[in-house]
Amino acid sequence: MRLIYRSPLRRILGILRFCLCKVWHGKKLMSPWWGLIDSACCIYIAGPEARIQIGRRFSLGTCSTLFSSGTLVIQNEVFLNHNVRIICRERITIGDNCLFGPFVSVIDHDHHVDFVDGALQRHLVNSSRVCIGKNVWIGEKSTVLRGVTIGDNCVIGANSVVASSIPANTIAVGAPARVVRCLKFNSSTGQQTTHPRE
């Protein structure tokens, strides 16, 4: 996957933003390579044990947010479109060559409500790891919730809510997301074909 910016200046500014983030966060933001960060992005690393690890040729779109108070691992050749939000309290892993559409959210925790003596209790958080495999395309305005594993070579349709794990080589859509197609590959040509779920 090649990350192409519309102008050389925009590309240079994106690389400079990435380098500044590495300097600002020090060892908490680990990357062996350069990446591109567009304008108005926020990267927060909160806590002494918090980390973000980013692979080669990373691209973060305008107005996107990465927050980690745990361990956020983003592998090689990952493209996150504009207004993507990834919030990590425990661990989120995103595999090689993933594409996220605009307004995608990935969250490894949720809140539950409890009342004690009639008073709402705050800061009640449950967290579970999220793992997104290689070659996954997540469509616009989709949300991936805690405890989910998405296998390799998956497509998640736009506006989906992924509340349970999705097996590899499938297309899933809906709220909650359900598998609607299986992806198969022709070993001789390498071409991908789709088949209804059996």
Explain this structure to me?
This protein has one helix spanning 8-25; strands at residues 29-30, 35-37, 42-45, 51-54, 58-60, 65-68, 71-74, 79-80, 85-88, 91-94, 99-100, 105-107, 109-111, 114-116, 119-121, 125-127, 130-132, 137-138, 143-144, 149-150, 155-156, 161-162, 170-173, 178-185, 192-196. β24 and β25 (192-196) form a beta hairpin. The mean pLDDT is 89. The protein has one helix and 25 strands. A nine-stranded mixed β-sheet has the order 2-5-8-11-18-21-23-24-25. The chain is mostly beta strands and 198 residues long.
Mean pLDDT: 89
Shape: globular
SS-based class: mainly beta
Q: Regions with pLDDT < 50 over 5+ consecutive residues?
A: none
**Beta-strand fraction estimate:** 35-45%
Helix content: under 10%
| Rg over C-alpha atoms, rounded to the nearest angstrom | 18 Å
User: Between the first and last Cα atoms, what is the distance in angstroms?
Assistant: 31 Å
The number of helices is: 1
Instruction: Please provide the ordered H/E string of secondary-structure elements.
Output: HEEEEEEEEEEEEEEEEEEEEEEEEE
| Major β-sheet annotation | 9 strands, mixed
Strands of the widest sheet, in order across it, are: 2-5-8-11-18-21-23-24-25
